[in-house]
Amino acid sequence: MSLFTARPLDQSQPPSGLHRRLGWPHLVALGVGAIVGTGIYTLIGVGAERAGPAIILAFAIAGAVCALSALAYAELASMIPDAGGAYAYAQTGFGEAVAWFVGWSLVLEYAVACSAVGVGWSGYIVAMLGHLGLALPTALTAGPHAGGIINLPAVCIVLLVAALLMRGVHESARWNVALVVVKLSALALFALLAFAVFSTDNLAPFTPYGLFAQEIGGETRGVMTAAAVVFFAFFGFDAVATAAEEAKRPERDVAIGIIGSIAVCTVIYMVISAAAVGAVPFTRFAGRAAPLADILILIGHPLAASVISLAAVLALPTVILVMMYGQTRVLYSIARDGLLPERLSRVDPRAGVPRLVTLLTALAVALVAGFLPLGEIAELTNAGSLTAFVAVSITVLVLRRRYPAARRGFRYPLAWLLAPLAAAGCLYLLLSLPQLTLDRFALWHGIGLLVYAANRLWRRRQAKA
Asked: Taking the model in full, what pTM does it have?
């Protein structure tokens, strides 16, 4: 097959062996589990520093922009119910070479996200144990770069989540739903206590730094600047698309899962930010690392602040679970297409999951989380996500032109107007990332090009043999 020969839309995939056990409520919970993580607990402080009370508006704008890409995912998922998500859509739209680039980007996105969240969870749990008088030695809670030997808590949580995934998708989904309920309940507690002391005086002036970016006090501020920052709090919904081959009715359920999770999270973010800025003046928590807990302490609820911190610990494993789930399904789909060793696409008949690829993914993520510094490479997650968003936004238009009469369980409204805006916006954000991040992203794809070339050469020799 040519590098740029697109896969026909009606080309059937071999039986996957994956079990169709997920309904749309599971998929909405999957998306919420991926999106609502540390972002809501930390970005309100960062966003308020740049927009003041208008952080509420910043979350609304960021959610709307993210929804432009989510709508493209929803239409393509209803047409192409494949476990590869954006990788599979690129196969159908542009062919093998572009699909490999998108798939390799997704592997990076999910792997770095899992590792970074694992390290973040380790920091939370070590701090909590320290407050209880159970101090763990630095040698076992930090990698060599930080004066330790291994970040053991990060390794343990990654392997624990992987063990849960290998038990089966239905079991994993049930645990995810339970943990999502726990962390949303904690956020509801925060909203209840904060709204009890809500004052409209704290909302004036609503836009102290204006709508558009401007330099104030040596910092770039404004509602749009804050929106660009909190935009990354919405990442993770794309993992829902990788559940297409395990959804009961993929042509309907995946679209509901994607759009529903974005809608739910946008409302949650706006409600929590409104409660935060209304409870105390934004200057008292702007820029804080744990703004929600700090606000509860300021309004006289230290016990509730501890509950919020505990909820943050519970929230992080759900992010690892969904991101690792997405990574294993992308790798499974790539291997099924022959671009990686065929063994990675084998599904355990009892559990209905690709256990080998899940195990190898877990070991790789655990090694990165346990030994390597992640602070400087965490933005690679954004690079991988934005690359996929650009590709998906363009693919939906390509398939509209190529297959105008194809059955679509969901149609992107005003696609020819909004999809190009989504692609341009995401490309702009991608190119706005720090140059070092872009250099590392290019290096990752250089490695990917070598892997792809080696595999293509091996397949050519196999065909001749």
From this structure: 0.84
- In degrees and rounded to multiples of 5, residue 214 shows phi and psi of -155, 155
Sign for the CA dihedral angle at 5, 11, 12, 18 comes to positive
What's the pLDDT at 270? 93
What pLDDT, on a 0 to 100 scale, did the predictor assign at position 448?
93
pLDDT of residue 231 exceeding 80: no
Mean predicted confidence (pLDDT) in 194-215: 87
Cα distances from 450 to residues 168, 285, 357, 454, 456, in angstroms, run 33, 48, 20, 6, 10
| CATH, domain range 24-460 | 1.20.1740.10
Name the phi and psi angles at 420, rounded to 5: -60, -35
pLDDT given at position 148: 86
Main-chain phi, psi angles of 51, to 5 degrees: -125, -10
Could you tell me the residue ranges of all domains in the chain?
A: 24-460
Q: In whole angstroms, how far apart are CA 348 and each of 243, 355, 365, 407?
A: 17, 6, 21, 32
Phi and psi torsions of 220, nearest 5°: -85, 120
Rounded distance between C-alpha atoms, residue 231 and residue 61, angstroms? 8
pLDDT at res. 230: 80
**Which of 307, 352, 442, 388 lies closest to 66 in space, CA to CA?**
388
Q: Which residue has the higher pLDDT, 40 or 406?
A: 406
The pLDDT value recorded for residue 375 is 62
Q: Compare 229 and 161 and report the one with higher pLDDT.
A: 161
d(CA 94, CA 80): 14
pLDDT at 100 over 90: yes
Burial letters 103-140, b for 16+ CB under 10 A, else e: bbbbbbbbbbbbbbbbbbbbbbbbeeeeeeeeeeeeee
Q: What is the mean pLDDT of residues 58-77?
A: 89
Taking only the tens place, the pLDDT of each residue in 264-284 is 999 999 999 999 999 999 988
